[in-house]
Every structure is written in structure tokens, then in C-alpha cells.
Specification:
Blueprint: E1 5-9, H1 16-27, E2 31-33, H2 34-42, H3 46-69, E3 76-78, H4 87-96, E4 97-103, H5 106-112, H6 127-145, E5 148-151, H7 157-170
Parallel strand pairs: 1-3, 1-4, 2-3, 4-5
The structure holds shikimate-3-phosphate.
Shikimate-3-phosphate binds next to loops.
Binding site for Mg(2+): 17
Cofactor: Mg(2+)
Pfam families: SKI
């Protein structure tokens, strides 16, 4: 059994946590979520961290969590949508893992995040514009970091998982 960590990257609403949990069960690997670990280590939620420390403070915490995970065995890791904005994060994931870009259209992202109250970047009225701008900026970074790109707009999570497993084991 191959033992590299699988990193799921992609925009908010791409399905990283849902797919990640299911995939970890199938592969019998522990599941990690960088957002959740940042919150646990800090003892506060992401909106609070953004309020008190700004996005930069959150990004530093995110990198610290990612770097710590490198010291441990293999996982399936769901990352936050902005993880690729730091070069150090991209390098860490490329070097230590198998990276999957879960791609989703802006329309899908909007639908899946419609009721969200916990993502600081989306607590405004022009969500669609925000998501479109972020995607334009980040899409090249997702692509250059990924070993595999899988679209999650259509098809079941099960189908996405099959694609990931096939690529992971043949690499
Ligand atoms: C962010 C995405 C969020 C979370 C934070 C910032 C981003 O994670 O890390 O709110 O910059 O795109 P999800 O992609 O899991 O929603």
C-alpha cells in the first residue's frame, strides 16, 4: 500500500471535506482538515482569527499546521481554499504528497456555500464576484500544484473517489 499523504485542494465549496472523509475511510487513512486543526490549536474559530489577526495571521497558522503534519504518517488532508496562495505551502504539498485539485465552477461554489456563515471572505453581499475573483487568481496555482484534477460539478462523490484512487495507486 502506497503511503503518501493525499492533499485535497480547491476553492470553497469544491467538496474537499466531504470527499476527504469518504476517501479516508476507503483507504483506511486518518482524515485531517487544516481549517479544523487551525481552530483546535488556536482555541478559536476562523472568523475570530480573521477578526483579531487578519487574513495574514490565519495564513501563518495554516502554514504551521501543514508543516506539523509533515512529521507524521500518511493522511487524507482537506485544505482551506487559500492554502495555495503561499509558495511554502505549495512546495510542502508537492514534495510530501499526492495533490488533488477538486475543481468546481463558480456557479457550483455559490450554490454550495449559499448558507455559509463561517467563511470570513464570504460574509458580504457580492459573494459571486468574490468567488469569481478568487478563482481567477488561484486556479493557476491549484493547477501547478496538483498531480490530478477532478471536477466535482457533476457526478457522485463516489465517482470522484474512484478517480482519485485510480490515479493515486498508479502513480
Ligand atoms: C478560505 C477558505 C476556507 C477557510 C478560510 C479561507 C479561502 O476553507 O480556510 O475561510 O481563502 O478560500 P474552505 O475552502 O474549506 O471553505
Amino acid at each position: 500500500m502506497q503511503s503518501r499523504t493525499i492533499y485535497l485542494i480547491g476553492p470553497m465549496g469544491a467538496g474537499k471535506s466531504t470527499i476527504g472523509r469518504m476517501l479516508s475511510r476507503e483507504l483506511n487513512l486518518p482524515f485531517r482538515d487544516t481549517d479544523q486543526e487551525v481552530e483546535e490549536r488556536c482555541g478559536a474559530d476562523i472568523p475570530w482569527i480573521f477578526d483579531m489577526e487578519g487574513e495574514e495571521g490565519f495564513r501563518q497558522r495554516e502554514t504551521a499546521v501543514l508543516a506539523l503534519q509533515m512529521e507524521e504518517p500518511s493522511y487524507v488532508v482537506a485544505t482551506g481554499g487559500g492554502i495555495v496562495t503561499r509558495e511554502v505551502n505549495r512546495r510542502l504539498m508537492i514534495t510530501h504528497g499526492f495533490v488533488v485539485f477538486l475543481q468546481a465552477s463558480v456557479a457550483t461554489q455559490i450554490k454550495r456555500t449559499a448558507k455559509d456563515k463561517k467563511r470570513p471572505l464570504l460574509q458580504r453581499s457580492d459573494r459571486e464576484q468574490v468567488l469569481a475573483d478568487l478563482y481567477e487568481k488561484r486556479e493557476p496555482l491549484y493547477r501547478q500544484t496538483a498531480d490530478l484534477v477532478v471536477c466535482t460539478d457533476r457526478g457522485s462523490p463516489r465517482h470522484v473517489i474512484q478517480e482519485i484512487k485510480q490515479a493515486y495507486f498508479s502513480k
